[in-house]
Each structure stands twice: as structure tokens, then as C-alpha cells.
Sequence to fold (341 residues):
Amino acid sequence: MNHPLQRALVPTLSILLAILLNAAIISATGTDPLMVAERIVRSTLGSPYGTGQVLFKATTLLFSALAVAIPFHLRLFNIGAEGQLQVGAIAAAISAASLPPSLTPWAAIPLAVLAAMTAGAGWASIAAILKIRFRVNEVISTIMLNFIAQGVSGYLLFNHFALPSTAHSAPIAENARIASFSELYGWFPSSPANPSLYAAIALSLGFWALLYRTRHGFEMRASGLQPLAAKRAGINPARHTLLAMAMGGASAGLGAANLVLGYKGYYEAGMTAGAGFSGIATALLAAAHPLWIMGSALFMGLLDYGGLAVNSLVPKEIFQVMTAVTILLVISATALNRRNS
Fold:
């Protein structure tokens, strides 16, 4: 068996095994797993609205997964996508609410998106600087930065930007709103799926090309595999560490822009709803490969919305268990395959 085929077969078989185990878990709750599967398919892929919801959730997951995947190629584990999403979301909301109405959407939307990307990149860069200057483990620093982001965004919201008697900021300017596919083309009626999906796919393809088709990507991967050897070869691992974390944070900022500009239209407490942590799972399921992450995000988005659709049959927490079982099986099988190869 050639190596690329083997690499694709291992996660595929792992997911099939996970489906069987998950069916057993559902059966243990006293529910027919085939009935649950049929309901999930009918309410997601069998419904234009449901398909739109899956695509919308997959878009944010794709951005947050890339925030984890890019640093991962330098052996950096960015746990801070959740915090980067939060600061990106409040930056997008504040900037989009203050834009003059005279701006066209072609100017207003990029400005708000740039604010979200800058906030996310800046927040992730803090962990990179701590890593470079003081050798602080990025897992610890990004976890702590998640708590700080929650506190900072909460302070800004409730003390400066929240509308009276609400838990959300002022609505964004109309010219900064990203129209949905439903409004633009009549696709996926009433769902929040929007052209941010195109940007997410383009970013995945761009990161793939950067990592595997450019000298910069080769240097990034070399810095992660052998930093001392890379340094002796004239590569600067510290610079690549900073750039990778900043790019990851900017990707999280794009996910935040999708939530604020393409859905809510304002920032509210808890609006990221764990999307950053789900992005970690999405990236791990795809072995941090930028192209595989597209399929992983779609699968996770389907499980996320599918869990809501069958909540009357099976508790949504069961789907969280199912997701964890799937990821554990894929990671374990991949690690075992590498050890035996």
C-alpha cells in the first residue's frame, strides 16, 4: 500500500469504527441509532435551511481550526483560539458600529474584518513573544490568555459598549453587514450561511500552498521539526514562531468576523459558544492538514447542528461524547500507524 493511500485509509477506518461505537452509545440510551441517523440527515443535508446551518457552523470551525493547525506545524499547540475569537469579535463589533454610513460595503466590510484579524493576531502574538523571550510554554500562556480575553471583553462590553439593560453591543452599521446566501442568491433560505465560506476555503488552500509549496513553508516546518538544525541552516525559528501564531490568531479573527458581521450583527457575552475549543478538535481530527480540515469542519458542523436537531431523541451531550470518541480513535490510530511505519 502506498504511503498517501495508507495515510488516508487510517483515519477513514477510524471514523467508521467510531460510527459503530457511537451507534452503541446511542443504543445504550434506549434510542434506535438508525432513527437518529435518519433524523440527522433529514434535518441537515435533507433541508436547505439545515444545510445552510451546517455550512455556517463549518465556516467558523474552519477558521478556528486553521488557527490551531498553522502553529501546530511548528510544534506549537495554540489552545487560545477561543480567546482570539473573543477579542476578534468585540473588535469587529466596535469597529463596524462606528463606521460612517457614507462608506460602501466594499470598504466597510474589509475595515471591520481587518480589525478582527488584527485583534486576533495581536492576542496570539502575546503567547508567541512569551515563548520566544521567556520560554513560556504556549499551552499554558494561551489557556491563561483565554481567561484574560474573557475578562477584557466582558469589561469592555458591560462598562463601555453594551446597550442599556442588554448584554450586547450596539448594532453594527448596515454597510458592514455580510449578506447571507439567502439574501444574495436565494440559497439556503433563512440560514446565516454567507460568503465567508468562500474566504474560509480560500484560506485553507492558501495555507496548504504556503506550507507545502513555498520556501517559507518549508522553513516553518523545519523550525518545528528541528529548531537547532534549522537555526544552523540560517533559518530564524523565533520569527517563524511569531508569524505562525499571528497567522493563526488572524484566522480566528476571521471566524469572529463571520459571527459578528455575517450573523449576529453585534457582540454579546458568550457569543463564541466554545467555537475556539471546537476548532482544536476539528484540527486534531484532520491531523492539522489545511486541506483535510475542510472535510473535518463540515463533519463537525454536521454533528453540531445535527445534535440540536435530534435533541428531543438524544441529549446533545451524547454528541459531545461521540465527537470525543471519534477524535480519540483517529489520533490513536494515526499515532499507531506512524509507530509501525
